[in-house]
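Ticket closed. Logging final result for gibberellin 3beta-dioxygenase.
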Amino acid sequence: MPSLSEAFRGHPVYLHHKHSDFNSLQELPDSYSWTQPHDHHLPNYPSNNKTKIFVPVIDLNHPNAPNLIGHACKTWGVFQVVNHDIPMSLFSDIQRASLALFSLPLHQKLKAARSPDGVSGYGRARISSFFPKLMWSECFTILDSPLDLFLKLWPQDYAKYCDIVVEYEAAMKKLAAKLMCLMLASLGITKEDTKWAGPKGEFNGACAALHLNSYPSCPDPDRAMGLAAHTDSTLLTILHQNNVNGLQVLKEGEGWVAVPPLHGGLVINVGDLLHILSNGLYPSVLHRVRVNRTQQRFSVAYLYGPPANVQISPHVKLVGPTRPALYRPVTWNEYLGTKANLFNKALSAVRLSASINGLFDINEDQNNDFQVGFNLDI
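Final structure:
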């Protein structure tokens, strides 16, 4: 998947702290404490604990699913889906693989460590390099086949874990194509309007990565951060989370809203590229992860983007005399490089105008307030 690997090779991330063995830490080290005054990266918005508002839950079998998805994308930038045809047994399997991986001794996990200019392997969130404090999490990213990495982790048992990942990736690829069709339909765009969709809307050339995350129990969760606030650089991200809370999304006018795990549900995030394709109609959702004192949280993110050579720009159906294009064309490879260099200014860098005829970039105000990292982390 050259659009990912080439972008990261061109923008290596050097994290100078040693990897932590979270199980051995009885107190929160200062390097993980996010309460110092200089931590201006943290949003000022409080968590919403007073009013009960919920991220939309959408039944994919509902006859009005495209319109429901469109409303959720426009008002939230995130929603959960049910009746997605992914068997529960596959979620159990990928959780079992994640637990087996992150339960390995640190020295064993480091045998599959990610290189500074690489994407695949074990390591910290890449956005760590943009923050003065470390995040209470560890991650493992897979591009294409997991075989070489899993051979290093489980010389004898690699096959059963490879089979799980391959099956999970295939299911996510199929679901992502279905969601892409529904999200485009919610914008009035058909698969015939999208050259790389293919005749059946299968989006076969799409690039993707699988990202396994672990958020260990933390001795001082109020002062720690599992994953700092960021948007995804994807078209869309499909997230499976275990039964432990922690994910929060920023809702305009409400603050941070929890996205509790939903049995059999999947969280769908609008990414930066879909924000661009929608000509600013669908916001790329700002989200973060908090940790807790007693439970380990796992999540699995499927990061979905266009083929390497496809330029994403505001769709022609969403551009006209009264609504000019707000962004220039950009490939995922180029955009990842831009975000790696400019961090929270990436959308601004590809925007043609901040305001044309009263049209504002939905994400711009957020990006001015917060440092937003490019994502292989959720």
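Residues 37-42, 368-378 have pLDDT under 50 and may be disordered. No further action required.
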